[in-house]
Amino acid sequence: MRAKITINSQDYTVDFTKPLDLSIPIVSSAKNPVAWYLDAPNIEPVKVGKWVAAVAQGSVVNFNNVQFNPHAHGTHTECAGHITEKIYSVNEHLKTFMFSAEVITLVPESYADDLVFTKKQAQKALGAKRPEAIVIRTLPNTASKKSRNWSHTNWPYLLEEVAVFFRECGIKHLLIDLPSIDRESDDGVLASHNAFWDTKGKLRLDATITEMIFVPHTVKDGSYLLNLQIASFENDASPSKPVLYALES
Ligand SMILES: N[C@@H](CC(=O)c1ccccc1NC=O)C(=O)O
């Protein structure tokens, strides 16, 4: 299926048979990525007495319980409710699902004992583009991102000035291939989350942050159509499935 779409008065064609899936699948093993000091997610058959809900074990159906944490176990999308006292649900606040998006690649820079991304880098990568969503691929971009135990790794993070810059550019949806846009351990400051959602100004309830994506090398930097889908959890965050489509002009 192909569609003709118009973004900011520019006409493009999109081929829906060529999705570029940025989500990391959730698997029930230590091969699943994990952050925030949790154990692996668990997917296992319901057991009641001698009944094990697996066809391979005599049941007529496979019927699994799934235990996971959206923030810790893979690709997830969160709204401001992640850091506000009042509970806001991402399912209540993400109501449209197609966005103009720009994929950029950033190389972290040394900053004291940390690795960070700066406003200068973000400005250079974004140029004059003003998309609704920014998709950040960080280097190195090894497949280990799909199975890594991130706990205690002090991953690279966005300086607050980057989150302010994206907010001021009008970007509503920020996607990144790390467990958080903020420092792993920051005494609860979450400077970039607070800046992007503007918690000290006018709370941006329609803005989302998606973490733990994986952007394959084959997806080149540039402009795309983004389909950002979540599972309908009434929660601050939900597992999500961001999918890009090339824009053919
Ligand atoms: N950086 C925060 C911790 C933090 O962000 C966090 C801690 C536990 C579970 C999830 C967290 N953040 C993101 O989902 C801190 O050091 O207090």
From TrEMBL:
* One annotated GO molecular function: arylformamidase activity
Q: What residue intervals traverse the membrane?
A: none
Superkingdom, natural source: Bacteria
Q: Which GO terms describe its biological process?
A: L-tryptophan catabolic process to kynurenine
Indicate what this protein is called per its UniProt record: Kynurenine formamidase
Q: Report the InterPro entries cross-referenced here.
A: KFase/CYL (IPR007325), KFase_sf (IPR037175)
One Pfam match, given by its short name, reads: Cyclase
Query: What is the originating organism of this protein?
Result: Leeuwenhoekiella polynyae
